[in-house]
């Protein structure tokens, strides 16, 4: 057993865990104590190599002594132990970033860093190393956001693209609504585009919206005003045809293809006849011509 | 100049590829000779960066085999006049003075007199080639307003040098090609393109321009992230949509508007200019130029006519 006073609790050189506090662990320690001892590096005061969460729980519980294994090791050995100690569990993205950052700080070669990346399930690429270092050195709010929403590296990359002030506002906006990973990606990409184009973001409008789809539609209107206008025109024209439910006119969502699709669902000849008849009036009208015009991006006057 | 390593290869075959084309887009039927793979120039919108993963520039030294392959293709072709170029996977001229790569091909096409060889570039250095140039080699430059060259085409020659090199090529008895590709829509681009076309009309002999291609910016979806990361305001200025090939393009209405404007400006300079669209849909052709091009074969036939018109019985 080692007195907590003999441990440098502020030295987090070998800390990978994020967040470094776990209520369930604290409750368990309160009940049955620390089962697995901490690993500390033999120096005065001791430096924790593995067991940061256990140490914090112990401090919170007012414990004065914790069980430790004391190792006579170099910094690099401590670093290797710290990474390996965490390999048995699923690390979140921030913890993976901490691992890589730590390896880099302790002078691992690029090849050794790639080996670490492989061990923690990341691709061996310089670009990924750069991104992970950014994450490791980012603000707490971003780290919390990544862990809480299980954000992918791609989406973190988008968030890191913004200045901290914008990033904070975006995290506040997206944090309160549930986004799927792909939807979040779409939203973030659109936000970056708006920022590049206008050097501004429409926070007021965005904050007034409550669903991810409303946000997506609003941003789409900004990014793709032409396509949105074509979409609206198309909807209006088709609505005016008053077609029966078994007839559906479809247009390429990107308004690139030169043709439209007309789909008819019919289970007998009379239904088919009815569907075909419903198309006669639209065919005679100028509106059908206008729909074909939309395939060439011509908006009717 | 570039820091990339050069690797010399002695490949045995497969040097010539048909332009890959794009689904439901009209292709001109160009043949690419893979003489060099990779580029020392640094254009922000370059899709080579996306396709060629390696940093190294590869140069195929087996020119004899290249010529044998080209010759075989020319001999087997009975319907069309083939057009070859080395500017697909690289810039045709950027490394040429140092390594003298195109000269044997220029000489071969000059003797063959049955097909066209195009050198497509943004690197305005043709002095070393002048003694060998012949009418079967077309010197082509990609042209853009200087504003865009400054911001998006790092390490390339300035516009005035490109135009000067084109004029020199014309004076040496060559036809020249112009590629307004990629055309980038940014704030004030119409004004800049107006003056670019004015410069073309002022400096070049318009009767000795064999073709002019127009191609608005298009790029694979992955490049969008690159442009965003690099905050490419010019490249991202206008509205994009995804084509059937998954590439981003400006929305069709905007493409038609821009093509029509540039077509009219060019045709006002000289009614006989041969202008074509690179990888566009048939309705864009019709709406922009008023021409019915329903399939790639139609465009290839137009090229044949153009070449026969300019070369008469010489080809």
Concise synopsis of the structure shown:
The complex is a heterodimer of chains A (301) and B (315). Chain A is mostly helical and 301 residues long. Chain A has helices spanning 23-32, 52-60, 75-87, 93-105, 110-119, 126-136, 140-149, 153-161, 164-175, 181-198, 203-207, 212-223, 225-241, 269-278, 280-284, 286-295, and strands spanning 2-3, 38-41, 47-50, 65-66, 68-71, 247-251, 260-264.
Question: How would you sum up this structure, described in words?
Answer:
- The complex is a heterodimer of chains A (301) and B (315).
- Chain A is mostly helical and 301 residues long.
- Chain A has three domains: 1-88, Alpha-Beta Complex (Conserved hypothetical protein from pyrococcus furiosus pfu- 392566-001, ParB domain), CATH 3.90.1530.30; 140-223, no CATH class; 227-295, no CATH class.
- Chain A contains 16 helices and seven strands.
- In chain A, the strands form three sheets. Chain A has a three-stranded mixed β-sheet. Chain A has a two-stranded antiparallel sheet with strand order 1-4. In chain A, strands 6-7 form a two-stranded antiparallel ribbon.
- In chain A, strand 6 and strand 7 (260-264) form a beta hairpin.
- In chain A, helix 1 packs across helix 2, helix 7 (140-149) packs parallel to helix 9 (164-175) and helix 13 (225-241) runs antiparallel to helix 16 (286-295).
- Chain A is elongated, with a radius of gyration of 29 Å.
- Chain B has an eight-stranded mixed β-sheet. A three-stranded mixed β-sheet of chain B has the order 1-6-4, with no helix packed on it. Chain B has a three-stranded antiparallel β-sheet with strand order 13-15-14.
- Chain B has eleven helices and 16 strands.
- In chain B, helix 7 (189-203) runs parallel beside helix 9 (252-269).
- Chain B has helices at residues 48-51, 63-76, 96-99, 103-112, 146-152, 159-171, 189-203, 221-229, 252-269, 282-289, 296-311; strands at residues 6-9, 16-18, 31-33, 36-37, 42-43, 57-60, 83-85, 116-121, 137-142, 153-154, 175-183, 209-216, 218-220, 240-242, 247-250, 275-277.
- Chain B has a single domain (11-314), classed as pyruvate-formate lyase- activating enzyme (Alpha-Beta Horseshoe), CATH 3.80.30.30.
- Chain B is an alpha/beta fold and 315 residues long.
- The N and C termini of chain B lie far apart (38 Å).
- The chains are: A mainly alpha (301), B alpha/beta (315).
- The interface between A and B is medium-sized, with 23 and 26 residues.
